[in-house]
Every structure is written in structure tokens, then in C-alpha cells.
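User: Hey, quick favor. My workstation is busy. Could you predict this chain's structure for me?
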Amino acid sequence: MENLDVLVLRRLCAWRNQGKKALLATVIRTWGSSPRPLGSIMALCEDGTVVGSVSGGCIEDDLIHRYTNGEDKTALHENSSPRLLTYGLSAEEAFRFGLPCGGTLEILVEFNPDADALTELVATLDQGLLVQRNLQLETGIVQQQPIDAPLPLSFTRECLSNCFGPEYRMLLIGAGQLTEYVATMALFSGFSVTICDPRAEHRSSISIKGVTLLSDMPDDVVTAFKPDARTCIVALTHDPKLDDLALMEALCTKAFYIGAIGSRRNNQERRERLLQHFDLSVEQLAKLHGPIGIYIGSKTPAEIAISLMAEIIAIKNGLSLPNSMNVAYAKEKLSQQVA
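Assistant: No problem, here it is.
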């Protein structure tokens, strides 16, 4: 499944290039609990088709009614200036729109974004670049430029600046049952997934639509992958000859998550090998996650995949997980209790 923001922008771009009227709605401020984070976007076509989300569904319904057959229908057809809408100020309205108790959303609605600018934006994202899009509220004029690192959403009375990035990428080393579960979960979480395994007998068992399958050696694949801050790499072969090759290259990159399957003992031995034989530094090894995942007492491949994806998504979202969720820490505590 494609990154949701890119999917929204791609669909909006197609509508506008077909000459259809459409709007882009962006969550610019929230108070209290809210169903969608800052920067979330949705696009609405004049025929009522929606892609993306700014709430749990009720606000989308209101926008559809308001701008396709309601009181503000003319705004979509007259290229009105961007408008601010606030939902959930009262308890009655919060209930009506399905917002959590105390939740309030402020949304900026932009009418008929320029088709050429959208085409340029989507093309830049397809090149794997981050883009900052600046919308002047008074005129509706858009300026956009590639940037080196993600920036938070910024909103003033004059301008909305939102950062859009290419889809997150996941590189899995090793093809097997666990890999299938992880790849499937990663796809519906919006990651582009690549699986690398030079062993033909293992690759033959993988048949997941939307996954890229490679047969090259792991170190060559990591190098060619050019991992960036929107990339995660997980070694899942249990074979040091393959996992270590991938890790020695991955740990020198900007990948936001690098992990390897294995027990506490296996991971300690792996760290010692990488330190002694692959010239990696202590600082580089500090980026390695292992044992992978958060501690949920997982036993089966499916449960391990859930544990791993939970850790990856938490780190992607900038969360610092407590020690109690660390697999090695939790298992050490359990072993002390048993003793």
C-alpha cells in the first residue's frame, strides 16, 4: 500500500489534470484528543469522491455535503481563497462529529490546487525526495522546494507549511515465514517492502503482491538501496554470513531502524563480531536493535511480526520506548524472578 499522503496527492493531481474541481483539506491544529495527527490530509473531488482522512469519518461526511451539494458548494466552483474550519468546540458538536471527549480540530481547506504544481510535487516525491509545500493563505499561491530533513507543520495567519516525503521503505534480509508476516503488515502500514535472499530455495516460498524480491548478496543490496531517514532494515535469516553482511553496511547509513533476529546471546555474539571483525564503532553498534520487537510474550511468527512492527512504527513516530517494553530487559527480569 502506497504512503497515504502520496496517494492523496497523486489522486488529487489526477483530478485536477482532468479538469475536475477538487479541494485539499489539512489538519493544522488540534486541542485535546483528536483522531488524526497534525498535517493529515484528505482530497475531495466535485463528484463526492474522497481519498485520505482528517477524522474518523464524520468530518469527511460534513465536508462532502458542504462542498458538493450544501451551502458552500459555490466555493469549490469559484476558486475561493483557503478557508479555516473548526470542529468540536462544543460538546454537542464533538459528539456529532465523533471526536473524543474534549477533542477539537482546525482544518484548512484549499480549493482547486494548481495542477502543474501538484504534478511537480508528485514527480519530486517519486524521485524519493522530501518536499516542503508553502501555501499563502491570502492568495492561494503555492511554493514548494526539496529539503534535506523532515520539518514539522507550521501554520501562521499568512502561510501553511507542510512537509511531504516519499513512502517509508523496508528492506528485509531473508525470506521465510516470519518475513512474510512482517512484509504483509508493513505493506498495509504504508511501507514499500523489498526482500533480499540469495538462497533460491528460500525465495521460492515468497509470493506477496507488491513486494520486490531480490537475489543479490545482502551487502550489495543495502549499498544499492541507499538507505535514508525513511528506511528501516531488518535481518531475519538467522545466518551470520548473510545477516552480518547486511548489518555492516546498514549501520553506516541513516536508516531510522536497523534490527536483527536472534536471542539475547546471539545478539551479543553478533555485536562482538561486528565490533571485532567489521571495523564498526561502538556508536554505530548502538543503532542496532536486537532482540527485535517490543516484549509481548510473542512465540509464533505472526506474534513476533506484530512485536517487530510495533517497535518500528513507534520509532518511526518518534517515541522513546520504556525499558519494560525492551525484549532483552523484560526477559532478564523474568529470569531473575524465576531464579
